[in-house]
Amino acid sequence: MSSLPSKPVMIFSTQQPSFLSAKFVYNYYERDEFINEVDIRDPDKLEFPPRLIELNFSKVESIVASNNFGQKFNSHINEIITQKDKITSELLLQSAGFVKYTSDTERDYSFYHTSDLGSSENKSKISAFFENASTADGQQFADTPENMGIYLNLTTNRPTSKSADIFSQRANETLIASDICFDLVEASAANPFSIHSKKNHNDLRNLRNLQVRTRRRTNPALVSVDEYVMSVDGLDFENSADLFAEFDNTAGMGIIGYILFKSEIDELGNVIAELGSFIIKDLQSSSITDPKIKYGARYKYNLHPLYIVKPDPNERFSFAMIGARGKSVKIRCVENVPPPPIEAIKFSYMGDGNVNLRWTSPIQYGNIPTRPIGDIKGYQIFVREDYNAPFKLKKYLTFNDMIGLENFPLQENIPEKYISRSTNHVTDYTINIERDRNYIVAMCAIDAHGNSSNLSPQYIVRLDSTTNTITVDFASYKGAPKQYPNMLMSDKIFIDCIKVSGKNKMTVVFDPELTHVNLSENNNDKVDVVAQQLEALPAYRIQLINVTKQSDKIVDIFLKRQQQNLINFGS
Fold this sequence. Notes:
The chain has helices at about 45, 70-75, 75-80, 125-135, 180-190, 195-215, 240-245; strands spanning about 20-25, 50-55, 90, 100, 135, 140, 150, 160, 175, 250-265, 270-280, 285-290, 300-310, 320, 325-330, 345-350, 355-360, 375-385, 390-400, 420, 430, 440-445, 460-465, 470-475, 515-520, 525-530, 540-545, 550-555. It has about 575 residues and is mainly beta. Among the domains are: about 90-225, no CATH class; about 345-475, Immunoglobulins (Immunoglobulin-like); about 500-570, no CATH class. The strands form nine sheets. Strands 3, 10, 11, 13, 14 and 15 form a six-stranded mixed beta sheet that branches. Strands 20-19-18-22-23-24 form a six-stranded mixed beta sheet, with no helix packed on it. Strands 1-2-12 form a three-stranded antiparallel beta sheet, with no helix packed on it. Helix 5 runs antiparallel to helix 6. It is elongated, with a radius of gyration of 35 Å.
């Protein structure tokens, strides 16, 4: 009488890409960009997309040292893609009916339950993979750190990454058949000298429930062949003899490309919609662009290697498998580059204290040299009466025609009484001033997304009562930030101000003529110019202002006299 061998345990261990990054690129404005994706069916938009996401990732060489299998089968990737229903995943190929149990005392989830995964309903394996692997306790499947495995919550059958899978912890991992898992761990928990006794006790309830459920589904009188073989669909190739000839008597696997999953998420990271997957065929590629996006939307990309596997050296059989270890990245598609400032303002007196302002809209180009961005949708007019006074908003002229604007959060909260709305692009406005008073006037351009330019040139406008004419004097160059309107004044109203561009490093040199002064012949009246010890307060302070981003940084400089070793050479 012979007995059946124990059920085999099938585990794959694949590598993941080292990195995945995303960058939003905004090229030009569209009215419906907030509610609609880019229509890539339009040849012009396909060649010059109004907006896109640039994805960069690691090459295959950084994932595997040798990729002979992958390079050979990559030339047949179109044949593989046509058989997409046969593509399986590393996750789905794990052995059914087993629990991966770790005794790590600091982990909340310690089970890897593989039974019945993706087997319900009549779905393709790739669909089952995506549904079961895309969400991990509220996080995307590919969020798992590099050295961390994918584990399934027993109650939800959803993956969780909260378990040990690094080399130093592998000794604590055990694969246990689900129908006996409680009995084994209970015996371990009964040992009072075990360092894992407490945690094992805490896990007993869940393991008991799993063991009971497994035994209820199991008929000891029936033996399933599926428990002893790896069920996977093989790929068909037109020239299989020539393709496999190089790999006869050889088993192995290799990367034939990448599969990229895309989903739209909300501000909390919850998936709103699954947006499909993309095959990246080029093994030397390290980047891809996605133009099919909405402005303001949040997206998440999961990148997984696509493997070819030849499990038996004696058979010409292979299958395609998505690696469980991937990388993910989240990105929000918003543009925060401010428009350029207005070049100049022309003033005309209209009578009765009314002064007309006229200007030309600034032109801004992005990544397409032949097409301006064209997203300026408003202007702000500011007035003040003195250099020491802050600017006050006189009027906000807006003609923003973005569809769905009511749902778009603007960056400034402006009372309605200061807003003038129009359906057409406005390039002039009339203000009223009093006679014989100075008014400093400036403007800002506002784009469709609420980004504000720096100030235009500033002008001193005065209505002379004796001549009934206006005088306009230049006060400041363009480009001053809103919060620092006096930075570029033509008259030097404050000292020690330097403007530079294109620099990323600053060297400060302090070269005093002396370190101290003696007020008398003895040293009792010595006054230090440079402190002998480090003072608690800085000797100098430098304020660095980024006029483009309208941000600043304070750098404190502390001075301390260095000791000098003097050498006496004699008389």
